[in-house]
Each structure stands twice: as C-alpha cells, then as structure tokens.
Amino acid sequence: MLAYGVTADAVDDYVHIGESTTIECLEKFVKCVISMFEDEYLRKPNPNGVRRLLQMAEGCGFPGMLDRSPVFDDILNDCAPEVNYTINDNNYTMRYNLANCIYPEWATFVKSISKPQGEKRKLFAQYQEGQRKDVERAFGVLQACFAIIRGSACF
Q1: What residues have CB less than 8 Å from 149, skipping those under 6 apart?
Q2: How far apart are CA 126 and CA 104, in angstroms?
Q3: Which sequence spans correspond to the domains of the chain?
Q4: At a CB cut-off of 8 Å and minimum separation 6, what does 153 contact?
Q5: Which terminus of the chain has fewer Cβ atoms in its 10 Å neighbourhood, N or C?
Q6: Which residues are bridge partners to 87 per DSSP?
C-alpha cells in the first residue's frame, strides 16, 4: 500500500494477504514509525531548535525564515517563539515563510518576484527559487518511495 498507493483489497491479489490483515499491518507499521521517530522528527522545536533553524536559513541567504509547520501552527495560535533578525540594518521580529503563488496574501508569506527588476531582486528570486526547488526535490523523493503520499489512502 505504501509503495504502490493501492487499496487494501488490491494487495490481496499480489501478496495473498486479506484486506483486514493488510490494514492492520499498515496501522502497526505507521504506529511503529511514529513511536521510533516522533521525539526527533515530529516534535515542536524548542528555542534552541528555532535558533538553529534560523541560522540554517540565514546561511542559505534567508534570515528570519522558518519552514516547519508546527512553528506555523504556533503562529496561527499566537504562541510562537520570538524571532529577531537584521536585514540592511533594520531589525525585525516577525518570522516569514517562503511561498509560491498558491498561498494567501499574508505578511508571513514571502512569494517569489515574478519579474524581478535589478540585480538585488534577481538574486533574491534566484535564491528563493533554489530553496523552493530543494524542498520540492525532497518531497519528490518521498513520493517516489511511497506512492501513498501522492494521493489519498483508501482503507
């Protein structure tokens, strides 16, 4: 089901395991993955983690950017960790997320410049597109490995 994105009853023809057993095995597998990796990969970042993420983003040319959805959820709930960064001698306290045109017009979403004028804007657009493509490539690898990510799961 994970590898091919098929329904539980389709697995019966291939591996000769009943639908209910397939669903039970998948549920146990998912619970095992969560229990093994939850503490490291599914936790909200603490202040040190936020600082580390900000340093990583700044090293890529995007000071103040966070791209972890738990942080974004905290922003919506007004309980996000404080962020401070400086660009061109201006201090900022509001974090931002690189986005494309599908996101709403919110101050926290910084979209690419569609027709950049001038070297600074062209460089910004180039860096932003590079970061976005890195994320898309990583997601593409997940999609290639697990077909279930490409569409909805059918139990």
Answers
A1: 139, 142, 143
A2: 22
A3: 45-93
A4: 1
A5: C
A6: 90
User: pLDDT 10s per residue in the chain (155 long)?
Assistant: 776 667 777 777 777 777 788 888 888 888 888 888 877 776 676 778 777 877 877 777 767 666 555 556 666 677 777 778 887 888 888 777 777 777 777 777 778 788 889 998 898 888 888 887 887 888 777 777 776 555 555 54
49: tokens are: 């983690």
β-pair type (109-111, 97-99): parallel
| Angle at which helices 8-15 and 19-41 cross, to 10° | 110
Q: Are 111 and 117 spatial neighbours (Cβ–Cβ below 8 Å)?
A: no
pTM of the model: 0.42
- Could you give the CA distance from residue 78 to residue 54 in angstroms, rounded to a whole number? 19
- List alpha helices for the chain, DSSP H: 8-15, 19-41, 47-59, 69-76, 119-145
Residue 15: half-sphere exposure toward Cβ, Cα within 13 Å: 14
Return d(Cα 2, Cα 105) in angstroms, integer: 35
